[in-house]
Amino acid sequence: MNYLSTRGQAPIVSFDQALLRGMAPDGGLYLPQTWPVFDAATLGRFAAQPYADTAREVLSAFVGAALPAPAIAAAAQRLTDSFHHTAITPLVQVEPDLWILELFHGPTAAFKDLAMQMMAPLTDAALARSNEKLLLLTATSGDTGAAAVRAFAGSEHTALVVLHPLDRVSPVQRRQMTTVDAPNVLNLAVRGDFDDCQRLVKALLADDSLRDGRRVSSVNSINWGRLAGQIPYFLFAAASLGAPDRPAQFVVPTGNFGDAFAGLAAKASGLPMRGLVAAVNANDALARAINTGVYARRAAAPTASVSMDVQAPSNFERLVFEASGRDAAATRDLFETFARDGESRLAPGLLSALRQEVCAVRVDEPRTALEIARAWKDWGRVVCPHTAVALAAARDLPKGCGPVVVLSTAHPAKFPETVSALLGFDPAPPPSFAAFGEREERLTVIDADLVAARAALRAVVA
Ligand SMILES: *Cc1c(COP(=O)(O)O)cnc(C)c1O
């Protein structure tokens, strides 16, 4: 299986190279050159076997011959070892046509664990193969950094540096990152906001002196390795509900559109689907683009679904590339214009193709709050604000058309302030929280400047 760039000006690479690079050298994102095919018999198996087996089979299809089979098996085994639920991604029915796919039973209680736990051993295997070292840098507002720290702690060939804004991530999220005692992990708490962290990461990624004998990359969802690890649960859920005979519709709480794109990748790989709804919060650039044809940047609005507060969803580029019939020149033009002007207009043909692929729905804060209250009242379920955004979008879908699956991306105890303000009690913590409550925190506080960041990095890179 080989990978090409959405901007069409980078060499074709194998899976391991796409994984280690993250972004393609022409500024595009990697996608498989051709989609694998999961036929009806395979889907039948995915409904019946343990989730980790499905994850291994799906990964194998996307990795191809680029990594040895035992490395892929070890990556899938990580799910069994680190998740606190035997089903890993349980699918729970709450109404005649409505299911909730619980993706929060991992070590940091958010769906990012599903991909990150597998990505870490795959990355190590790719590095072992080429005898290289990798420095991973990431800015986080909470969930990504925590999942990365948990997944990469103890990796043999990878050092991980996570920058978070000091005192601006929740105490739970901070402790998930800082109570890990691993010499290859460095937590930097930056005196500033998330944008300062992102700016520093960008500057560090461009700093050639860090490259000295090692690769430098990032772990956000521009990396195909992240998306590949999210495809199996779409296949599992749809197969469990009777695909291909009874196709499901998916509703995905969306920020960078990585999770939603993984659903489209499952569809491109043969999964019959009745549709995919991307549910966004007040940060609705994606919904405006698909519903009005203008993709425009706006100022960030803080919401309760913080992990979806995204202004320019990075995986929109993959969607545009696919919807345009893999027109790299048109994709390049759209995103270069957006980067330059902060706005791009979508051609009518592209727009109708996009609308065939996804329906995008904006959900405001009062509706999100209402859904949290309703889920408790109607089903006795406490849901996180991200899940509530998707539940609100699901409520507006026509009834009686077949199964609807709402992805539940985080455990509500990760966001206790929002939930307790609405329901009057704190959500019960998941089992994974017990492990880090007491341990000592390890973090380095720095000013938001490049010299300070570079000096702090010496703790993990000589
Ligand atoms: C990251 C995240 C999302 C958004 O996922 P994308 O792939 O960026 O669209 C939704 N919910 C939670 C809890 C998250 O952590």
Task: Explain briefly what this protein structure is.
With 462 residues, the protein is an alpha/beta fold. The chain has 20 helices and 16 strands.
List keywords for this structure.
single chain; 462 residues; alpha/beta; 6-stranded mixed sheet; 5-stranded parallel sheet; 20 helices; 16 strands; 17% strand; globular; binds pyridoxal-5'-phosphate
Overview of the structural elements:
The protein is of the alpha/beta class. Helix content is 44%, strand content 17%. The protein contains 20 helices and 16 strands. The protein has a six-stranded mixed β-sheet, sandwiched between helices. Strands 9-6-7-8-16 form a five-stranded parallel β-sheet, with helices on both faces. Helix 2 crosses helix 10 and helix 10 crosses helix 11. Bound molecules: pyridoxal-5'-phosphate. The site of pyridoxal-5'-phosphate (PLP) has 17 residues, from helix 11.
Please write out the topology.
Layout: E1 2-5, E2 13-14, H1 15-21, E3 30-32, H2 40-48, H3 51-63, H4 69-82, E4 91-95, E5 98-102, H5 112-130, E6 134-139, H6 143-152, E7 158-165, H7 171-178, E8 185-191, H8 194-205, E9 215-218, H9 224-228, H10 231-240, E10 248-253, H11 258-268, E11 273-280, H12 285-292, E12 294-296, H13 316-323, H14 328-341, E13 343-345, H15 348-357, E14 359-362, H16 365-379, H17 385-395, E15 404-408, H18 416-423, H19 432-436, E16 444-447, H20 450-457
Parallel strand pairs: 5-15, 6-7, 6-9, 7-8, 8-16, 10-11, 10-15, 11-14
Antiparallel strand pairs: 1-2, 1-3, 4-5, 12-13
Helix pairs in contact: 1-5, 2-10, 3-4, 3-10, 4-5, 5-6, 6-7, 10-11, 16-17, 16-18
The structure holds pyridoxal-5'-phosphate.
